[in-house]
Fold this sequence. Notes:
The protein is α/β, with parallel strands linked by helices. It has one domain: Spore Coat Polysaccharide Biosynthesis Protein SpsA, Chain A (Alpha-Beta Complex), CATH 3.90.550.10. The chain is 32% helix and 23% strand. The strands form two sheets. A seven-stranded mixed β-sheet has the order 5-4-1-6-8-7-9, with helices on both faces. Strands 2-3 form a two-stranded antiparallel ribbon. The longest helix is centred in the C-terminal third of the chain and has 16 residues, at 183-198. It is globular.
Amino acid sequence: MTVAALVLAAGSSRRLGQPKQLLAFRGRTLLDASLDVARSAPVDQRVVTIGGAGRDVLDTVDFDGFDVVESVHHTVGCASSIVSALDAFDEQSSGFVLLLGDQPGVEQSTIARVLEAAQSGDVVVVCQYDNGVGHPFWFGRETFDALGELHGDKAVWKVIESGLFPVCRVRIGGDVPLDVDTWDDYEKLLATTQTMEEA
């Protein structure tokens, strides 16, 4: 089974007011840390979409090992990033794990659980944390046509909730890993990370 990982990092960071991809985190950038999550995953191909602050991101972040896709329509929502990435996947790929470029706290073991469910034949896999459903997600190739027709933000939820595909919920202990949309989110992520490192 050939699988890919897709990291969404094309956002314009409108709520934050500056490129969140380039926020300082653990001595590098937030996006660098999120890409390391994908690097730890047992996948055959790694794809990342960029868009907002594209040139600065390309000049700053280490994309070694990734196929970089520039999402020219990133301002209209994350759907455009997913659509732009579909053609970048190897034609032999059975599907992809979807990760967020502002969510560096996803555990490798969580990705492994998702891939285990995918290898059992599940078409869509989501993580059921203690406080709700969250990433990473798995989308099998059977969903690619539906994904290719998406528009706007929060678009993948439309596929998950459409009823067109069976959805497997993998139980993961703990809360949904923090992602960064606002400055408060960023400060909370920094504080949580510091606490974990000091423990």
